[in-house]
């Protein structure tokens, strides 16, 4: 069977479109069938590709999905790949780009690694979220990075719960429930800890909480987190990965637990800036000072 790769791109950037053309032409020259999303087909403007609708069927029988853009583009792509378990290979064209595996400078090498099959696949934990009001389901969805319960206009009054037991009541701007992958996203901006991706855990991070005890929490991946918006207080809004939005009326309850399905990411071999340890990624992305480090003394 002929190998198939789906290519997606942030078409709002000219540099991204040019990079996508390079990727597509290199794959086609290697004899690989290339798909692009119908919504991006005209902007990409390459012949010899298959245009497909932007739904999970786009990755059917695809070996990998190559995504050119920032983390937002990768999160959009994860909505397509997660049901089929198709690996994502991100090429960072954004700012920080923690989800991406390669930088644009390594684009040709990255494509060659895909052609040669020089990559592994790792699984990233997701979270499932269920929101109810008076027993009625108002949201049933998932996230790779985080789920946030946020205020709309006035401060939220919420009670946080861990494993069926109340933890604390907060007047706050919101509460973030995140995965280790999401620990370097919104949760990081709100003061949460950085958690290495291979650690299995769930995070709960209050946002600007008016309370004595309002610290970020790291709990078991088997735990269930819940946030209840108190009745007779302003409602809020539920965001999943900053992409999917649901209204949360007063009295709503949001439950978060480990996702039933992971998102799979491709990790390349033999590409200079790929496959680096997470510590090295942190140093590079945040330009952390490490001058003077001597390393472990060898006997």
Describe this structure in words.
- By secondary structure, the protein is α+β, with helices and mostly antiparallel strands.
- It is 19% helix and 37% strand.
- It has a six-stranded parallel sheet, sandwiched between helices. A six-stranded antiparallel sheet has the order 9-8-19-16-11-12, with no helix packed on it.
- α1 runs parallel beside α4.
- The chain is globular, with a radius of gyration of 21 Å.
List the helices and strands and how they pair.
Layout: E1 4-9, H1 14-29, E2 33-37, H2 38-44, E3 50-52, E4 64-69, H3 71-81, E5 88-92, E6 102-103, H4 107-116, E7 119-124, E8 127-133, E9 136-143, E10 146-151, E11 156-162, E12 165-172, E13 174-178, H5 186-189, E14 202-207, E15 217-219, E16 225-229, E17 236-240, E18 244-248, E19 252-258, E20 263-268, H6 278-286
Parallel strand pairs: 1-2, 1-4, 2-3, 4-5, 5-6
Antiparallel strand pairs: 7-20, 8-9, 8-19, 10-13, 10-17, 11-12, 11-16, 13-14, 14-15, 16-19, 17-18
Helix pairs in contact: 1-4
